[in-house]
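Q: A reviewer asked whether we had any structural model of the full assembly, not just the individual parts. We don't, so I'm hoping you can provide one. Inputs are below.
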Amino acid sequence: MPLWKVYHPEGLYTAEDKKALAVRITNIYASIPLPKFYVVIIFEATPKGSCFVGGEPHDKFVRFKIDQIARTVPGPVREWWLKALDKAVAPFVKDRGCDWEISIDETPSDLWSLQGELAPPFESRAEKRWVEENKASPYTLDEKLPIKLALTPGLADR
Amino acid sequence: MPLWKVYHPEGLYTAEDKKALAVRITNIYASIPLPKFYVVIIFEATPKGSCFVGGEPHDKFVRFKIDQIARTVPGPVREWWLKALDKAVAPFVKDRGCDWEISIDETPSDLWSLQGELAPPFESRAEKRWVEENKASPYTLDEKLPIKLALTPGLADR
Amino acid sequence: MPLWKVYHPEGLYTAEDKKALAVRITNIYASIPLPKFYVVIIFEATPKGSCFVGGEPHDKFVRFKIDQIARTVPGPVREWWLKALDKAVAPFVKDRGCDWEISIDETPSDLWSLQGELAPPFESRAEKRWVEENKASPYTLDEKLPIKLALTPGLADR
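A: Here is a predicted structure for the entire assembly that you could use as a starting point for your response.
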């Protein structure tokens, strides 16, 4: 669901760094919960002299550009969410003396597919199965129903 | 109009593959119809170890990130449209044993220019000329009018 | 605030070109005014044969993809704004015989942080300080107030 593009100076991160950062980011989304494989992270090394901040070349700058697709962040938690992401990346930017910036776009969840399948509804049976299998696969009409199905919402105990 | 970014493992596609995939994608948009040159596709090779899915490096994963600008896909055809795109790319992902994901963003059509010209209105004379000439060029106020001009919409035959 | 991705043919721009283009772009935004360091520009060289326009490889094409975050361009100036940007880039595309295209997306300003700080409100004391210091830093609740504070808007002289 989220697509993270991490624009970083060439040579800043080792393979182990990338893996560790990817895991930190993935875990935040998995805790929502979301299927882990919804989280895609692409590291893109910017060669020296190809990144400018304020009109000046900046070779210690990391720019996180994020598309969130599956969920819209509700108003009251938007600031909290941003802070949570910032905390996840801090060891790889702040603690290394880099400048950094994060921006998130929210793109239409109905214009998104994985392995040719549209993502199943939030908290549906299909989503639950996708989480368990950790991969996208075809699902039935039945599986589009919510896990907790209440046909007549009301005050009664469930 | 659409800008396709194709993030693919380094070495996955030959020059011929890229050309063939670009043509398949372009033809779908041309059939709307849209001027062919509205379709821009940029292939970006991701070096080994720079793409993560679910926190794990994934070196057989292709991520299509699409900006659609000229048109908003109407509600009833959004799913169909996604399936049509998926079918176009299938020979280059599914049939090669790769995993893949597609997401589309819809960005403002009035914040878009080609060769310094704003795109002319949908089905205008200018758009028709652009299709024929297959390139962007200045157009007059007259050419902003629709090809089929009906000043007084009504029930009469046209 | 704006993130500019400049997809250009490999070898088209020298380091001096990049710097000059970055300064031209940055100055437009600084004149709004915006803190200069809000402007991030990443040049991305597309290798020969990896950029397609209308289904054909196009190796003299520059694609500007812009995210504007801090401000939404008001209706009446959207066309003017696009023309202003086009004028800024013209010496680096039109005057060099390249084709080019610009598109702008407007992404949520509340899902954006710099150095872990959310950008302060438009025309606030904190923004003024950020402009002066040309860098992001923590700010107080007081500094979120507008520079020109009028608690009771009315007809009286100020």
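A: Points you may want to mention in the reply: Chain C has three helices and eight strands. The interface with chain A takes residues 3, 15, 18-19, 22-23, 25-27, 35-45, 67, 69, 105, 107-108, 110-116, 118, 134 of chain C (CB under 8 Å).
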